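wait is this the right file?? whatever heres the structure
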């Protein structure tokens, strides 16, 4: 059975959803759950016809008993069909829900924040028919929503629920997609990081020969060559206040 989109809320599920709660997935049990009741009812029908066609006056009661058995199997099949239509496994952005019960409606719930482990088991028939069993654990405690059997499309259902738990947006339709480029609210400002800025600063640096002096020479006496970026040159040039006039006594006397 195909998964429902988050905008589709099946009939009967609206009362159990909270206001503002977003539906992630909602599935009924796989049709294979009905395989046994359908097969049993079919075999009962075939047996009733065969016995009824071979009874005599003395064994007519046996044929009647087989027809009553078939009617009981048919009633059981109808019950299973109606019960199947009322059972839902629901995942929202806040909870996992299991709605079941025909006469007495029951709802088992587990918050997503409480889910410590989630796995699913696929038997050999389940691999061929496309169903599996989910096993949920919550802090090592027994929960009413511990096992969910007959889950259709278990691979996709598992991915959708895990994506919601870890806040990962799954690609629509499970198609290949490219990660969009990082955008900003300011188109004129380029997106950079400290590593790129530092590398660019080094790439724009120009060699500068420091003047003589003990601080500007290496240990072998040769001038020291350093690399100075344009930003540092601009800062040094901006801090230059010009020449400072001498203020010794001789200059003051000349004035």
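ok assuming it is, sequence goes like this
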């Amino acid at each position: 059975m195909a998964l429902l989109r988050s905008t589709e809320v099946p009939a009967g599920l609206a009362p159990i959803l909270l206001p503002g709660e977003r539906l992630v997935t909602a599935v009924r049990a796989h049709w294979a759950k009905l395989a046994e009741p359908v097969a049993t009812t079919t075999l009962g029908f075939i047996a009733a016809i065969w016995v009824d066609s071979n009874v005599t006056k003395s064994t007519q009661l046996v044929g009647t008993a087989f027809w009553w058995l078939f009617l009981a199997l048919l009633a059981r099949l109808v019950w299973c069909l109606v019960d199947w239509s009322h059972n839902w496994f629901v995942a929202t952005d806040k909870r996992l829900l299991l709605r079941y019960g025909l006469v007495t409606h029951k709802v088992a719930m587990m918050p997503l924040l409480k889910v410590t482990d989630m796995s699913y088991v696929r038997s050999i028939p389940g691999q061929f028919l496309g169903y599996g069993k989910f096993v949920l654990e919550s802090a090592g405690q027994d929960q009413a929503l511990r096992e969910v059997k007959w889950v259709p499309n278990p691979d996709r259902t598992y991915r959708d629920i895990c994506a919601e738990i870890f806040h990962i947006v799954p690609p629509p339709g499970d198609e290949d997609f490219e990660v969009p480029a990082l955008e900003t609210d300011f188109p004129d400002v380029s997106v950079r990081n400290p590593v790129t800025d530092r590398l660019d600063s080094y790439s724009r640096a120009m060699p500068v020969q420091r003047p003589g002096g003990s601080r500007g020479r290496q240990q072998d006496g040769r001038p020291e060559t350093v690399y100075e970026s344009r930003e540092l040159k601009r800062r040094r040039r901006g801090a230059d206040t010009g020449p400072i006039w001498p203020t010794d006594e001789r200059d003051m006397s000349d004035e």
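Residues 201-237 form one domain. so i think its the right one actually
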